[in-house]
Amino acid sequence: MENLELVQKVVVVLICLYLSSKIIKYIWSFLDVEKDPLVVLVTGAAGQIGYALVPMIARGAMLGPDQPVILHLLDIEPAADILKGVKMELMDGAFPLLKGVVTTTDVVEACKGVDIAIMLGGFPRRKGMNNKDLISKNIGIYKAQASALEQHADTNCKVLVVANPANTNALILKEYAPSIPEENITSLTRLDHNRALCQLSDNLNVHVGDVKNVIMWGNHSSNQYPDANHAIVNIGVGHKLVKELVADDHWLNTGFITNVQQRGEAIIKARRLSSALSAASATCDHMRDWVLGTPKGTWVSMGVYSDGSYGIQPGLIYSFPVTCEKGEWSIVQGLKIDEFAREKMDALEKELIEEKNFAYSCLH
Predict the structure, then answer these.
(1) pTM of the predicted model, to two decimals?
(2) Active-site positions?
(3) Per-residue pLDDT tens for 320-357?
(4) Phi, psi (5° rounding) for residue 150?
(5) From CA 45, how far away is CA 26, in angstroms rounded?
């Protein structure tokens, strides 16, 4: 008899809890107010990456499924008609989160009220051009765009530079947008990070979603260094280090690095066009994790303003492993760096110092 009464009481409690949750959900539906739209600038929006990226933003892949957006699409005058076509397609996409689209060739108009700036536009690398040639061509572009962001964007605007050389372009932008917090100016190394995850998952014959915590140190360049020393794999009953599962340090220090470094060239050779879809996806990944946060126990690679961590010269835009929470990134501290990794990291630091010095000589 006592057991029956206990069961009845438990049933009553469960019914009450169920009804309470329904009532709370009903009341909350009246209180749930749509977020204000964020203004997202995409420069070079008429290009391949821009064409792949803007529907991802409009669908919520970058800022979340409940965040409305207004897109500001900027490109050069010869691409004005292409921008109009991109806008037509966005309208035809009928994206519920897309609250407006501005297409323009005027950098001032494009930067007004911007909350997030995705800098895809830049002078393209042409045959025979080295990084110094590219830097000298991009200085004027980034000076003008940085000045417009400085004067017209939101004071807490988050900036992601994608156009190469991304690290140094970001540094130029910082120079001419001094009121934008230094921690709000970043460069893209997430594409290289994702490529490294892909190479490891392929080698181990596991799903890419089960591999995490690879690191891209330093610069997005032909000398980039993907580091798998701290990467781990979900094996179903916990995690194991990639190094233990691969059990081939020679490959991790040679073929793995080369495959990541040369992946872009392999894609160009295969499709006769440069990476666009994967670059757009990586751009979404970078900004989504920055704004919404990285999963617990996971870090990602971002080009950020160096604070001297791991002995890297302060003031460079250098790629580090970071975690993100509440719109802020933090460099992962205390990782053990072996001699091979130290040599690679220092070489990339030297490369970025040389780029910085050359850029500043052009500026002044």
Answers:
(1) 0.90
(2) 220
(3) 999 999 999 999 999 999 999 999 999 999 999 999 99
(4) -55, -40
(5) 42
